[in-house]
Amino acid sequence: MNGTKSYLSKTVEELKPSGIRRFFDLAAGMEGVISLGVGEPDFITPWSVREAAILSLEQGYTSYTANAGLLELREEIAGYMEKSFGVSYSPRSEITVTVGASQALDIALRAILDPGDEVIVIEPSFVSYVPLVSLAGGMPVQVQTLKENGFKILPEQLENVITDRTKAIILCSPNNPTGTMLSGSELEAVAQIAERYDLLVLSDEIYAELAYDGEYTSFAAISGMKKRTILISGFSKGFAMTGWRLGFVCAPEAISQAMLKIHQYAMMCAPTMAQFAALEALKTGRSDVEDMKKSYRRRRNYFVQSLNELGLTCHVPGGAFYAFPSIKSTGLSSEEFAEKLLLEEKVAVVPGNIFGESGEGHVRCSYATSMELLQEAIKRISHFLKRNQKA
Amino acid sequence: MKLTEKQIEVLEILENNSARIPVEDIAKMAELSMAETETILDKLEEMKVLVRFNSVIDWSKVDGHEGVTAMIDVKVAPKRGVGFDEVAQRIYRFKEVRSVYLMSGAYDLSVIIEGRSMNEVARFVSEKLSTLDSVLSTTTHFILKKYKHDGTIFEQSEDDKRIVVSP
């Protein structure tokens, strides 16, 4: 290398580095930080699940599995999706076990996009959607949801950005970072648009287990939508298994087989011990999920009400484990707020602008944190607000 | 007795959180007003469903307070009309006795005793427990180490292993 020529791909060079990185660097190494900046459960994976993985290692299950994953696991997933969400997929041809929901998203996008195809990303959104669309050769088209609408997408907003090149919409409900959950009828409205413009919907349902108010509806369960849906889910959030990296994707056979092609060349298969863990999670982990969900819900109630009392107005998030309060009353930008709060009070939150333009003026706080720490965090935030009141 | 959903919710919050949790926070968690929460707490206490606000203490860490705990399997002759209840009562009234359970299986009562020393416990068993009329035999097991007590793991490391900020 002579120092002048870049060997990097243009696409990668043009990718923005994740804004989360900067905050991570800032917070890492500080002592006594209460972190509300974490996108994962505070619970450790249930012991029965960890124990099953250990057993699989003891028994010597250390080789590859089928590309699509252990058939027994796919069968269990099929049963789980049917029973919990009323959607039926064939374990042999429509389910692929992946390395986290992230890889599922990646192979889904790569399987459907030709260069220049547009994908609608509803913001504020999970940080990976836009870069993954670009990496797959597609064009991300961002739509901004508004706080006034509870960060819910309106059908006309979607219609405004649909072009001849639009291929898919990425939907995430319950949403990271807003916690917003769409009702059955709101999903129905998106479905009508998908139908009218002949679009696919990548439905990121990783937080489906963590829906607190009202009935959760899977997008694939809406009449006529199964054939248009690539349903992405996994074990990370609901089952507290983030580090296992185990997700899955359900889609009509033609799309599944296309994804499997990419998966078999790029990944071979998901880690075997994690697949055994997931199998156990589906067989016996349901009551653990229920207990964790109850606990998140109570913390949500406590935390959201406390934030509102402090003047950081916040809609009640229907799912996931994030509160997304407005910090506009402080007169600070979301980055300034997050940085000052971290340095002055040692509470880590994530600035909302990292999740897209419409996240500006908000911060994401995870309430997947023990009650004691949430109580302390509220004290510190209250202290911070008193000191930083807008003149 | 049949409890309401909110009464059960309040009980679960109390069971899973520190006894020091403010009523205000319980109210927020259960989506109740302060007054409603107070009413539920009073009612639960009145019904003796909510028996006591306890703290779990690991005395083995405190010099001079380590103490010893023993679980004693007690075989008794039940009495006509009062069954095991009368002898159980005679046993649980001793302040050294922390718990008494009626058991199925090889013996009848499981008695948990706490004392300052092994000697003290031994003396209690031989002088007080074994000499009761209905007690036929006792088998004493001393507890060597408490790993988990009433749902609380004593030696668990509390540190959060997650990275501080993640998407």
UniProtKB/TrEMBL annotation, chain A:
Main enzyme class: transferase
GO biological process: one example: amino acid metabolic process
PROSITE patterns listed in its UniProt record: AA_TRANSFER_CLASS_1 (PS00105)
GO molecular function, one term: transaminase activity
Domain Aminotransferase class I/classII large: 32-381
Origin superkingdom: Bacteria
Sequence similarity: Belongs to the class-I pyridoxal-phosphate-dependent aminotransferase family.
PANTHER family in the record: ASPARTATE AMINOTRANSFERASE, ASPARTATE AMINOTRANSFERASE-RELATED
Protein name, UniProt field: Aminotransferase
Taxonomic lineage from the root: Bacteria, Bacillati, Bacillota, Bacilli, Bacillales
TrEMBL record, chain B:
Domain Transcription regulator AsnC/Lrp ligand binding: 72-145
UniProt key word DNA-binding: yes
Alphabetized Pfam families for the sequence: AsnC_trans_reg (PF01037)
Any GO molecular function: DNA binding
UniProt keyword terms in alphabetical order: DNA-binding
Stored SUPFAM superfamilies: Dimeric alpha+beta barrel (SSF54909), Winged helix' DNA-binding domain (SSF46785)
InterPro entries according to UniProt: Dimeric_a/b-barrel, HTH-Siroheme_Decarb, Tscrpt_reg_AsnC-like, Tscrpt_reg_AsnC/Lrp_C, WH-like_DNA-bd_sf, WH_DNA-bd_sf
PANTHER family: HTH-TYPE TRANSCRIPTIONAL REGULATOR PTR2, TRANSCRIPTIONAL REGULATOR, ASNC FAMILY
Protein name: DNA-binding Lrp family transcriptional regulator
Species annotation: Cytobacillus firmus (Bacillus firmus)
